[in-house]
Amino acid sequence: MPPQPVPASEPGTDPAKRVLPPNPKAAAIVALAFTVLLYVVELVDVVLPADLDQGGILARDLSGLDGVLWAPLLHAGWGHLFSNTVPVLVFAFLAMSAGIGRWVLVTAIIWVLSGIGVWLIAPGGTVTVGASGVAFGWLAFLLVRGIFNRAAGQILVALVLLGIWSGMLWGLLPGDPNVSWQGHLFGALSGVFAAWSMARVDRSQARKATGPGSLAV
After folding, report:
1. Model pLDDT for residues 25-55, shown as the tens digit of each residue
2. Domains of the chain
3. HEC sequence for the chain
4. The pTM is what?
5. Between helices 132-149 and 152-165, what is the axis angle to 10°?
6. How far are the Cα atoms of 104, 106, 145 from residue 110, in angstroms, in the given order?
7. Which of 96, 111, 128, 148 has its CA 20 to 30 A from that of 196?
8. Neighbour tally for 89: CB within 10 Å
9. Which residues of 13-23 are buried (b: 16+ CB within 10 A; e: fewer)?
10. Cross-strand pairs, 58
11. Is the dihedral of CA 176, 41, 136, 86 positive or negative?
C-alpha cells in the first residue's frame, strides 16, 4: 500500500498554527540582531553631534513622512530604549512562529501602517520615535492570530502574554503627552490587520492545496 498523505488538520502539520518558531535558534538570532541594531543606532545618536531623533515622524508634514521608515529605530534616550527591549525581544521571537519570511512581512505591515497612522493623527509639529508601535503591533498580532487561525495553542499563548503584559494596554489611551498613544494604537490595529491578512492567505493556500473534489478531514 502506498504511503497515505497526512491530513491537513493533524496537529503540528499546519505552519500557521505553530506556537514557537520552526527554527528557534535562527529566530532568536534575528530578534537579538534587531534589538542590537536599536542599541547601535542609539549609541550613534549619543556620539554624533547630530540629533538623529529629528528623523522621526513629523506629523502631517510631508518633509516628515519619511520618518515612517526610521522612527522605530530611534529612541528618546536610553531609558526609552530599555523599556522597549524585553517586549521587542519576546514579541519578535514569538511572531516568527510561521517562519522568518512571514515575520518580515508581518513586521513590514505593522511598521508602515502604524507609522502612517501616527503621521495622520499625532499633534502637529511633534516628532514621534520609538519601537513601541511595532512592539504593540507584534503583541496584538500574537493576541488575535489564534482566533483567526482557530489554533488553541496560539490562544493559550495569547492569554499568557495578556496576563504578563496587560499593563501595556493602557498605552493605547491618551495620557502622558510625552508618550505616543497614537503609535501604540495604530501599532495594535496594524497587528490585528496583519493577523487577519495572514490567516486569509493561509486559508487560500490551503484551499488551493486541497483542490476541487478533494476530501479534507
Report:
1. 999 999 999 999 999 999 999 999 889 999 9
2. 22-208 (1.20.1540.10)
3. CCCCCCCCCCCCCCHHHCCCCCCHHHHHHHHHHHHHHHHHHHHHHHHCCCCHHHHCEECCCHHHCCHHHHHHHCCCCHHHHHHHHHHHHHHHHHCCCCCHHHHHHHHHHHHHHHHHHHHHHCCCCCEECCCHHHHHHHHHHHHHHHHHHCCHHHHHHHHHHHHHHHHHHHHHCCCCCCCCHHHHHHHHHHHHHHHHHHHHHHHHHHHHHHCCCCCCC
4. 0.89
5. 150
6. 10, 6, 14
7. 128
8. 16
9. ebebbbeebee
10. 127
11. negative
* Amino acid code (one letter) for 145: R
For the stretch 47-70, pLDDT in tens is 998 899 999 999 999 999 999 999
Contact assessment for residue 18 and residue 98, using Cβ atoms and an 8 Å cutoff: yes
Cell 554624533 maps to which residue?
A: 48
In sequence order, what are the beta bridge partners of 128? 57
pLDDT at residue number 13 = 53
Residue that has been written with the C-alpha cell 495553542 in this structure:
153
The owner of cell 518558531 is 21
Query: Which single residue is written with the C-alpha cell 528618546?
Result: 76
